[in-house]
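Researcher: For the annotation table, I need structure tokens for Glycerophosphoryl diester phosphodiesterase membrane domain-containing protein. Please keep the output clean. Sequence:
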Amino acid sequence: MESIERSWDLMKRSFAILQSDNELMLFPIASAFSCLLVSAVILGVTGTLSSTITTLASGNAPPQVSVPASFAVLCLYVANYFVIVFFNLALVGVASDRMIGGTGTLRDGLGLAWERRGKVLQWALLAATVGIILRIVEGRLSWLGRLIVRLVGAAWSLAAYFVVPVLAFEDLGPVDALKRSAHLFRENWGENLAGGFSFGYICGLLALPGVILWFVAAGVLGAAGMFLGGVLVVAYFLVLAVVSAAVQGIFMAALYRYATGHEVPPGFRPEHFSKAWHGQSMEPRRPT
């Protein structure tokens, strides 16, 4: 419960920053549109492989997969990782600049991401490869093996949490960026975690009104309500996804500033960061 309350507070404060600078929402919008476009192109080019791609993406890999199918899956993952990281990097760059009173613009963020495009592509290749391997391995193991793989995946996610701002502000290669990200996490919050914040839980709760709306519309208006409610629910989910992505980018920028210099951006309190994750000491350790 404490974790959810903390997550809600962090989301509200990050959203307050977004309200004062809603141009930041353009980054996740551009990211979503670009992912759809890139996926459509790749699936169109590899149309005969689409069923294999769908199977692999779900983690249920067939016993034998052709080389072209595997290559298509890798291209799909890498392309989408590249797009997501590219626009996240742009968002984090502008959000971080605005936090210190700067006047970073959409163009500035995209310019920063374009300068780092080579490093972003390298990281996309690494992250996509790890993601595919974990999904395939998970699909082949028993429940215990799947649990272990998911724990490995969670550890990977924590270690890679600061990769995007590290790529943006420190311009390291993918392996060094991962090491730097893991170092920042370990030095500030320790290795033995008892809990942390989760925007995912909050977004899940915020999605419930949309589902309830659909059932109400279907019950009151019948078939017409199902259609109208479906349209409204899709629109609501799209807005929620865009706002959530922007809010998470803002908080990532703020958390990175804290992790690298223990600087608390306006709108936040020190305990928002020192207790973002719970380690043994419950307090951050200063980086060496």
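Researcher: And a one-line annotation?
Model: The chain has one domain: 2-278.
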